[in-house]
Specification:
The complex is a heterodimer.
Chain A lengths: L3 H20 L3 H29 L6 H31 L34 H5 L2 H16 L1
Helix pairs in contact in A: 1-2, 2-3
Chain B lengths: L1 H14 L13 H22 L3 H21 L3 H25 L15 H22 L15 H11 L1 H30 L1 H10 L3 H9 L4 H13 L1
Helix pairs in contact in B: 1-5, 2-3, 3-4, 8-9, 8-10, 9-10
The chains are: A mainly alpha, B mainly alpha.
């Protein structure tokens, strides 16, 4: 088999995942695109391992071992990533990464009642902040933000 | 990008027709199968990153990962192929679907699945694809994989190499998986604890006179008893 076939396929899959990471707005879709990129790397590793195990008589099978390690690390990554996304969703009421702008300069607090204000579904934790005065609610939002970033 | 791929492969074939026994114009059955499955895989990946229905994206991801498992089988890496089916198709996609469900993803078309910088992302991706495909084709146009003989990635070979040469990374990986397990549990438990005690926490934060004091409160708020002590201190101040 021509080595170019798996190499080109993995390059194209990697760039597809790159597009997904850059263009998607939902955090879980971004995680799916990250999985695509990892799988492209895996295909590259396997193809070059099969090639080198014959031509260079490389007996370590480092490509396949690294592929197994990558798969395990990707599984750990998706578990931690989804836990983080769910925690963010519980705290902020959105998994839209365009609205999570805590560390950006010159933006208001994020979340559904942030600068965009398009998301309107109330969290179970929100009514405590909405029941108070406006200033208190704003301060509570800032305190919650500090709590989430602490 | 499919056109670019085929054009690149055609160009590579035109320059390597003198490669001896391997002819580009007489591809082997494995190559034809690889190309067909590769087209399906790439198309499914494109649909995964472009569809506006979130659940459909996860289901097309299944097609992509299954196609990659078939590619591993065609490359005689059997063990990796079945690990791919078990872990990716079996657990990762199910995890993603659960994530979509728990974040209340809309079932139908969601118009805001793509952000505003879609065209910049497309430009970056196309440029990266062109550069990568060009470099890869130029580098490996005369390289052929010998797929005859015993399988390069059967379970016996993979297991022997893994447990003879890669034992220490393997064990370290188990520690990493344990750390990931504990981390995921801690993250979800902290979120639920916050949700359960958010009402009292927010009230304490509002009585504090400064936001920095609120951060002091929540810095040591692993147990809420300590948080109450800190809030009392803030009240005294």
């Amino acid at each position: 088999m021509h080595l170019v076939h798996p190499a080109v396929l993995s390059a194209l899959l990697f760039c597809t995942g790159l597009y997904g990471v850059l263009a998607r707005r939902n955090a879980i879709l971004v995680l799916m695109s990250v999985e695509l990129m990892l799988n492209a790397v895996n295909l590259n590793l396997v193809a070059f391992d099969v090639w080198l195990s014959r031509t260079a008589e490389e007996t370590l099978h480092s490509g396949q071992a690294l592929t197994l390690f990558t798969i395990a690390i990707a599984a750990a990554e998706i578990g931690i990533g989804l836990a983080i996304v769910l925690a963010v969703y519980r705290n902020r009421g959105t998994s839209d990464i365009d609205k999570l702008r805590d560390t950006a300069e010159g933006h208001g607090p994020d979340g559904p009642d942030g600068a965009d204000g398009s998301g309107s579904d109330a969290l179970p934790a929100e009514p405590a902040g909405q029941a108070g005065q406006a200033g208190q609610a704003e301060r509570a939002g800032r305190a919650k933000k500090a709590e989430a970033t602490a | 990008m499919t056109l670019a791929a085929t054009a690149g492969q055609l160009a590579s074939g035109a320059t390597t027709t003198a490669a001896g026994a391997h002819g580009f114009l007489s591809p082997t059955g494995v190559e034809i199968a690889f190309l067909l499955v590769g087209l399906v895989t790439f198309g499914a990946a494109l649909v995964t990153v472009t569809t506006r229905q979130l659940v459909h994206a996860a289901l097309w991801l299944v097609v992509t990962l299954g196609g990659l498992a078939v590619e591993y089988l065609l490359l005689t890496a059997e063990f990796i192929a079945w690990v791919q089916v078990l872990i990716y198709v079996g657990s990762v996609v199910v995890l993603l679907l659960f994530g979509l469900m728990l974040t209340r993803a809309p079932i139908g078309r969601s118009p805001d699945a793509d952000s505003g910088n879609r065209w910049a992302a497309l430009a970056v991706a196309v440029a990266a694809a062109a550069a990568l495909v060009w470099v890869v084709v130029d580098a490996f146009r005369t390289t052929w994989i010998d797929l005859d003989g015993p399988a390069a990635g059967s379970t016996r070979v993979t297991g022997q190499s893994l447990f003879q040469n890669w034992v220490l990374p393997f064990e370290a990986l188990s520690v990493l998986l344990l750390a990931a397990l504990v981390g995921a549990i801690v993250l979800s438990r902290k979120a639920t604890a916050d949700a359960a005690t958010a009402a009292t926490g927010v009230k304490e934060a509002t009585t504090a006179t400064d936001v920095t004091e609120a951060t002091e409160v929540t810095d040591s708020a692993e147990g809420r008893g300590g948080a109450a002590d800190q809030a009392d201190k803030g009240g005294v101040r």
